[in-house]
Design brief:
disordered C terminus; nucleotidyltransferase; DGC-Regulatory_Protein; 3 domains; Alpha-Beta Plaits; diguanylate cyclase activity; 43% helix; rod-shaped; Rev_trsase/Diguanyl_cyclase
Length: 341
Amino acid sequence: MIQNDDLLRMLNLLCPMYMLLDESGVVTHVGPTMQKLRPDEVLEGQRFLDLFDLTRPRCVGAFTDLLAAKGGKLNLSFRTAPRTALKGLIVGMTGGAVVKLSFGISVVEAVRDYHLTSADFSSTDPAIELLYLAEANSVAMEASRQLNLRLQAAKISAEEQAFTDTLTGLKNRRAMEHVLARKAGGGMPYALMHIDLDFFKQVNDTLGHAAGDYVLQQVARVLVEETRREDTVARAGGDEFVIVFDHLTDRPRLQRIARRLIDRLEQPMRFHGQSCRISASIGIAISTEMPDCDPLELLNQADMALYAAKRGGRAGMRFYSRGMDVTEFPTDLAQSRARTG
């Protein structure tokens, strides 16, 4: 077989995935890209039919059978791992044959598995266009994924802002109502604790709104520290807070929590050298004690219990009971609280 340097340079340039075979089917030379598929193996000197399994043509027993295949088209794969599937064309020539191989539609996977680049293919090989298309598609998909991630993050951030009180970092009233709406008809036991700050107006009037904001932030910190991760702590508005206790309906335990909150909030808070003094009144309503009560009505009952606590002398707490009728109190509880501080 003729294997002069000009022929080899031509084959390396035109079809870098080629094999030259002698008249007995032994590999005498391989293209540079073909060798990359088996970098640690010497392919020259091995029989072509020992290297590959053929699925087209079938039942090839000898090299002469392979040369006689109609059209010379081959479908084959390596016998050893990785068993990359290939397509090929064999053409007989004086002293043997030349086999031109390609990856077919699996070119993208082959480029990835064997770390190939465009330099490993003929410049006219359609695989180059496939690689460019695959790369462009990969870039576009990654850009789309990143955009979706940013949009999702922006959506989550917007939802968090919509449900967060900006001053205290607690849930806001909208979030609290959303939590309560999910409990309607759910059958899950829970308790509501409605907290109103005593003497907060005096802090605002005497020390200014900056001091009032500081007090609200400290109150929020105390409420979070005295509750569990699964509880919802919300600023319902102004100096009012609501805590939703999931799966907690035990009166003594709720009473202990309320007493700890009252005791801690009575501690003076220092703001720019000034002492801010407040206290808290708390009303509690328990879902299991009012089984037919929807969450908003239960919140109203906690509100009535809160007003009863304020009437009892502030810095106190009350549980709602059926004997506690709203008609006993002014119809506008907000106006009444404004009058009592």
